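Supplementary notes for students who missed Thursday's class. We covered one full example, reproduced here. Read the sequence, then the structure, then the short commentary at the end.
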Amino acid sequence: MTEMIAYCGIDCFECGAFVATRDNDDAKRREVAELWSKEFLPGTLPEDINCEGCLSGGVLFSYCHDCKIRECAMARGYANCAFCEDYICDKLSEIFAVAPEAKERLDSLRT
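Structure (token representation):
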């Protein structure tokens, strides 16, 4: 497997939390925690950086437990948001602003 496309279009295999977890890499956890503390979630600690991908049903990063995109797609039974009749909704617009590659990925799945 070379990719795991999250509900929002992010490729989990490119996500620092997923990579750190997959490789059991504490240096990567520290790097990701520092970056995410500055950019997204102040106070993120290296021990918070554990995720097997939102589609895995396994360990998730804390934010993913409360992710409205994930919650919505799961409730509607979609593999990801590309298949939703409400694509592009307000929930996705926020993630696309910081991860435009996620939009490109979902757009490509719609064609």
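Commentary. The radius of gyration is 14 Å. The chain is about 50% helix and 0% strand. If anything here is unclear, bring it to office hours.
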